[in-house]
């Protein structure tokens, strides 16, 4: 794998950060423990990427301040891009879909629930890139501007 390729952000592994969105999509028909477990997997991914970015900076630079800044950057970026924003987004997409489908009483309840799950799951690939780009832009005008590393 090329050295400049980030396994946590530039490969299929990025989708592990979206495991909680799968849980959110299934919330309407799954036990709450399953939804919580999906958040556990997503947080494990976030922490793995955070540790990776901290270790890379430690090897590359070694200065404690820069290591902490890189670690904080990764933790903040991943928390926003993998947990908070997509979790709220899919939760709301599913809630609004369920509410809209409830108007169609001819569709059986289980079918409406399955449609809600399908809508949530289908939304995940659509939201990944815009959220990642949006969080990067947000980080560039806030954290990364306010707390630059020592060059």
Automatic annotation (TrEMBL):
Keywords: Membrane, Transmembrane, Transmembrane helix. The lineage of its organism: Eukaryota, Metazoa, Ecdysozoa, Arthropoda, Hexapoda. It comes from Loxostege sticticalis (Beet webworm moth). Belongs to the MTFP1 family. This is Mitochondrial fission process protein 1. InterPro entries: Mitochondrial_18_kDa_protein. The chain crosses the membrane at residues 75-94, 115-139. The keyword Protease does not apply. The keyword Zinc does not apply.
């Amino acid at each position: 794998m090329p050295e400049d390729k980030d396994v946590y952000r530039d490969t299929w592994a990025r989708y592990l950060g979206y495991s909680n969105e799968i849980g959110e999509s299934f919330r309407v028909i799954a036990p709450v423990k399953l939804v919580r477990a999906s958040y556990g997997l997503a947080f494990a991914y976030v922490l793995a990427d955070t540790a990776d970015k901290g270790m890379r900076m430690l090897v590359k630079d070694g200065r404690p301040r820069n290591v902490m800044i890189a670690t904080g950057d990764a933790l903040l970026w991943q928390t926003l891009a993998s947990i908070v924003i997509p979790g709220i987004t899919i939760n709301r997409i599913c809630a609004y879909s369920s509410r809209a489908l409830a108007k169609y009483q001819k569709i059986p309840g289980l079918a409406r629930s399955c449609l809600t799950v399908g809508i949530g799951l289908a939304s995940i690939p659509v939201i990944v890139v815009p959220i990642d780009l949006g969080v990067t832009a947000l980080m560039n005008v806030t954290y990364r501007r306010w707390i630059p590393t020592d060059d």
